[in-house]
Design brief:
The protein has about 300 residues and is α+β, with helices and mostly antiparallel strands. The protein is built from nine helices and twelve strands. Bound molecules: adenosine-5'-triphosphate, (R)-mevalonate and magnesium ion. The site of magnesium ion has 5 residues, from helix 2.
Length: about 300
């Protein structure tokens, strides 16, 4: 039996734009998905979504992992048990975390000797096949941890501030939101492409402030990024209410994180304002989660 875990993630910059090759800054967070893999007489996948065999409807990511790993090991029967701290379909990278943790658990269980780069690449291929179009960001950051500039795959300094996540508790499908942006871009390329370009430019502008722990400058750019996500149609009333509640309660910045449409916002806060920001988020009926950037990507668990 092997247990591995992988972190979720928040985007400081670049979600959706990164799908079109623009840069993003994404950071792993200390909320993890744990996957236990045990050799078994059949394939069983147990999660909060149910207990199934290979099932590409209920467990598309985990089933795809098992199918891919059959190319590296003789997997006749395996029991996969999943426990996660990440809300499903909420923009915190739950699909990437379960994909990467399952890949590494099977890699270790069957001694396939895949390296971390292989785990990240196979994970990206699986997300792309399921979502129709996916950047390498979520699976790379879940594999490697830390704060990463994508597609350059350049590690930045770990964040030294509090992260406050506001969860609308309204799940969304990344596949659908990525498709909606693609349709808008196809209809108005001269409008949407400059927006995506500017999101990518902000990620590059923010690299130095992040590396010198200048979260005031980083936060100003994050707030602009939020406005541009609204412009490409992935915002919503609940998300904006959370963003303004967080900002008005003293957050350094607040923006949508992940695919949007529902899901979560992320706010940067300092030690003194974090609890006030969390209270403001709860006061409008959402879930507030205090977390921090984690340096640790996918790892073996005792
Ligand atoms: N704990 C889990 N157990 C099994 N499958 C999971 C789990 N968490 C996520 N998944 C899979 O990932 C899917 C959600 O992925 P999706 O990309 O839509 O949302 P997300 O990854 O949470 O958000 P984002 O991609 O915007 O960060 C679920 O429908 C399920 O197939
Ligand atoms: C919306 C998106 O940019 C991030 C989802 O967490 C999709 C992707 O990068 O694959
Ligand atoms: Mg996902």
């Amino acid at each position: 039996m092997i247990t591995c875990s992988a972190p979720g993630k928040v985007y400081l910059f670049g979600e959706h734009a990164v799908v079109y090759g623009q840069s993003a800054i994404c950071c792993a967070i200390d909320l993890r998905t744990r996957v236990q893999a045990t050799k078994h007489d059949s394939i069983v996948i147990e999660s909060v979504l149910g207990t199934t065999a290979l099932d590409f409807e209920i467990h598309p990511y985990v089933s795809s992992v098992i199918e891919k790993m059959k190319g590296h090991a003789n997997i006749e029967g395996v029991r996969i048990q999943i426990r996660s701290e990440l809300p499903v379909g909420s923009g915190l990278g739950s699909s990437a975390a379960v994909t990467v943790a399952t890949l590494q658990a099977l890699n270790q269980l069957y001694a396939c000797n895949l390296q971390l780069e292989d785990i990240a690449n196979i994970g990206h291929t699986i997300e792309r096949e399921i979502q129709g179009n996916a950047s390498p960001t979520d699976t790379y950051v879940s594999t490697m941890g830390g704060v990463v500039l994508i597609p350059e795959r350049r590690k930045l300094k770990d964040l030294d501030c509090q992260l406050v996540i506001g969860n609308t508790r309204k799940s969304s499908s990344t596949k659908d939101l990525v498709s909606n942006v693609a349709q808008l871009r196809q209809e108005f390329p001269d409008i949407i492409d400059p927006i995506l370009d500017n999101i990518g430019k902000m990620a590059h502008l923010a690299e130095e402030p992040v590396n010198r722990y200048d979260y005031e400058t980083t936060g100003k750019l994050m707030n602009v990024n939020h406005g541009l996500l609204d412009a490409i149609g992935v915002g919503g009333a609940e998300l904006s209410a959370l963003v303004y509640a967080a900002r008005n309660a003293g957050a350094i910045s607040a923006k949508i994180t992940g695919a949007g449409g529902g899901g979560c916002i992320v706010a940067l806060a300092n030690e003194t304002s974090a609890s006030a920001v969390a209270s403001a988020i709860k006061n409008i009926g959402a879930e507030a989660i205090l977390t921090r950037n984690t340096h640790e990507g996918v790892r073996l668990e005792p």
